[in-house]
Amino acid sequence: MKKLFFLSTILILLSTATLSAKDATVINAEADAAITKFYTKVNGGQEFLSKVKGYLIFPTVLKGGFWVGGEYGEGVLRSGGANQGYYSTTSGSLGFQIGLQQRSVIVAFISQRAYDKFLASNGWEGGIGATVNAITLGATRDLSTLSLESDSVTFVFDEVGLMAGVDAQLGKIEKIER
After folding, report:
1. Residue ranges of domains in the chain
2. How far apart (Å, rounded) are the C-alpha atoms in residues 69 and 98?
3. What is the pTM of this model?
């Protein structure tokens, strides 16, 4: 009975996050705050993002699961100092997992080819033509010493909560209207 209650709670939390779409003004304000945290926690972060062709910032990505899990967040694509559109990130997973977690995610497009391919595709589906290096930033990190040879890189930072387990997941990033 406790397992059923816990699973129901997680599903309700995730569906509430999905149904309560944020206004563009809220997404922009949260993205600005997340970028400020990124700059504070990561030496060279501001210089790095100023050199990329564009980046997606998902200020709040909620993840929860108990055997079956889900993840959702809304963010903004920025390039040349301007907002270029709004996107959501969604994933589902199946396997041994338990917990709730909140985190911020930045997907930086290092090459023009990766940025153009992303724009032309109207988003990404995990595992289908997407090659992304993922870097989890738990402690202060210095990007000036980082050598990146891929077209894009994902930064995960400002994690709160605990999510444990082994699972298989498929994720998607898609354009949303705001």
Report:
1. 2-176
2. 8
3. 0.76
